[in-house]
């Protein structure tokens, strides 16, 4: 991957925004509602698959190295935190959002919303089983997978849908402008001309 200075700045910026998003939150019993999903999805849309994913990899690595940038601190032992699966999901989901937004032809608002929601669902598909696994097998708690869904998915999905709607509107308007001015490292969306 040949990175330009602009790319490095944008990757660093989205890694930092993900860290900030961890602290803009509504506390819930186990899995807080944060703005991280918004910034992860935005990274995928604006930076594309590889650079968007790189921003999240850097964010996760910095947290694992000890910077207290996760919702509950940082350090290598954070991999045993029940919410660490969501961080893995951010890496994978951001990549998928970027990849789909690069590949889909004739982008529409509905398609863009679907792309963002696909990535958000990946956050949950990885995060919720990890939550269950840590509670069940590491913390030796007698919980069921439906408990993990009720704690790690149900309370936050509504807010994530709202964030996806907002991001869809914003991205649909600004990506073509930013790419035309070469302020982001990707081409604008291919719009449906019909």
TrEMBL record:
Record membrane topology: Multi-pass membrane protein
Pfam family, one: BioY
Superkingdom assignment: Bacteria
Record GO terms (molecular function): biotin transmembrane transporter activity
TM regions (residue ranges): 7-24, 30-49, 56-73, 79-100, 112-135, 147-172
Record's signal peptide: none
Subcellular location: Cell membrane
GO cellular component, one term: plasma membrane
InterPro entries noted in UniProt: BioY (IPR003784)
UniProt keywords, alphabetically: Cell membrane, Membrane, Transmembrane, Transmembrane helix, Transport
Family membership: Belongs to the BioY family.
PANTHER family for this protein: BIOTIN TRANSPORTER BIOY
Stated name of the protein: Biotin transporter
Organism: Natranaerovirga hydrolytica
């Amino acid at each position: 991957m040949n990175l330009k200075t602009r790319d490095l700045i944008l990757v660093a910026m989205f890694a930092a925004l993900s860290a900030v998003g961890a602290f803009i939150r509504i506390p819930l019993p186990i899995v807080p509602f944060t703005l991280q999903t918004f910034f992860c999805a935005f990274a995928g849309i604006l930076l594309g698959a590889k650079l968007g994913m790189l921003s999240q990899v850097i964010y996760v690595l910095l947290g694992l190295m000890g910077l207290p940038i996760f919702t509950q601190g940082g350090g290598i032992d954070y991999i045993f935190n029940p919410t660490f699966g969501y961080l893995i999901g951010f890496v994978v989901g951001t990549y998928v959002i970027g990849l789909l937004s690069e590949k889909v032809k004739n982008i529409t608002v509905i398609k863009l919303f679907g792309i963002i929601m696909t990535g958000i669902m990946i956050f949950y598909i990885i995060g919720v089983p990890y939550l269950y696994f840590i509670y069940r097998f590491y913390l030796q708690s007698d919980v069921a997978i439906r408990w993990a869904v009720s704690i790690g998915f149900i309370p936050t999905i509504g807010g994530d849908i709202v964030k996806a709607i907002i991001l869809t509107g914003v991205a649909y308007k600004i990506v073509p402008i930013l790419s035309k001015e070469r302020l982001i490292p990707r081409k604008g969306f291919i719009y449906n001309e019909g």
